[in-house]
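Suppose a colleague, Dr. K., hands you the sequence of a protein chain of 74 amino acids and asks what its three-dimensional shape might be. Before reaching for any lab equipment, you can write down a predicted structure in token form. Begin with the sequence itself:
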Amino acid sequence: MLGAAWANVRPMPNRKNVPACSRFLYRYRNLVERFFSKLKLFRAIVTRYENHAEYDLALIKLASAKIWMRFMSR
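The predicted structure, expressed as tokens, is then:
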């Protein structure tokens, strides 16, 4: 394991003793979760049509590039 990790989930606003929550880490956690949800929209990746790991990784890289280009064109 690389290091210690903790849950970085925004606490309920009406909680009495609020645990620490890093806004910086929360922002990037949200970004990663949204990326994976967009990646799941590609049918070939979700159903895993490819039988070899190299082809599966290539599909993930192509889908990631397409998501990134769509994000940068805004």
